[in-house]
Amino acid sequence: MKEIDWSNLSFGYIKTDYNVRCYYRNGAWGELELCSEETLNIHMAATCLHYGQEAFEGLKAYRGKDGKIRIFRPEANAERLQSTCNGILMPELPTEMFVEAVKKVVKANERFIPPYESGAALYIRPLLIGTGAQVGVHPANEYLFVIFVTPVGPYFKGGFSTNPYVIIREFDRAAPYGTGRFKVGGNYAASLHANKMAHDLGYSCEFYLDAKEKKYIDECGAANFFGIKDNTYITPKSSSILPSITNRSLMQLAEDLGIKVECRPIAEEELDTFEEAGACGTAAVISPIQRIDDLENKKSYVISKDGKPGPVCTKLYNKLRAIQYGDEPDTHNWVTVLD
Ligand code: PLP
Ligand code: COI
Hints:
The chain has six helices and 18 strands. The protein has about 350 residues and is of the alpha+beta class. The chain has two domains: about 5-150, Aminotransferase class 4, branched-chain amino acid transferase, N-terminal domain (D-amino Acid Aminotransferase, Chain A, domain 1); about 165-325, D-amino Acid Aminotransferase, subunit A, domain 2 (D-amino Acid Aminotransferase, Chain A, domain 2, Alpha-Beta Barrel). Strands 1, 2, 3, 4, 5, 6, 7, 8 and 18 form a nine-stranded antiparallel sheet that branches. The longest helix has 16 residues, at about 185-200.
């Protein structure tokens, strides 16, 4: 293998040794198979290609100072995948099978898990697709579940530092009670244009308001939003955002730290009142928000006055990372240690 520069990894694809696969045929899941092939051979009329019958997940494995490999909350990803399957009529994969597949693919690619000191991790990407042929709009009768892994560095260049966001109104990522609450590829296709607009304008990422009224905060690109004020962690309640496992974990850690937690609609104007804010997700962990610009209304919500991450974001980030890498006790039983 070509030497990997662990400390300078970006968030991209690097070929590893194995992926795991499992086929659903005749109404049942088959055996988990280890595979070294990177490509898939599927029918041209597969429902994933035409009707977007596809779901994915994202989680990470970390190498600790003690050399142990820890996988963060795989059961939560299994449950979210089940919810997505339910949402777009795909067969659910049992949690035990999902976790077994995650462990198997991580173990088989152990040499790609970045060293502790690098601060990088192994990104785990489960994928479930409808492979059965259909021409009418109907769910497939055959499916393929795959997990590949790839070592990754920070999602945003600069790692834990503040970033500017821009509100985009021309493109919505998801409608209320649409597929935004499920992790399906169509949501990301819907986000590509807005994301490019934000990048072209010099921002790190696009910022979405609710699609119906354009009044409430939905998400920060492919990450959940949270704001901090008056010792309170506030995060949007919306039927069009993905239930983030990172966000759920941060809510718990905030509570542990004596911070109040509120999950409720957040009107755009409230952005003016936050002492700190962040985008959170597996890829970025926490990406503290520097400012959010609303170009149409010539408004700039400056959240970090000095351009640095605030104390609460920093505390939450350090706490979560410490649990993920095994530097602090896993009091909530979030971590699966690889045997
Ligand atoms: N929101 C969207 C749209 C996402 O794609 C993700 C990433 O999976 C998240 C939020 C964060 O979710 P999690 O913390 O489970 O990675
Ligand atoms: C996340 O893991 O937070 C993501 O949003 C993943 C992204 C590459 C889809």
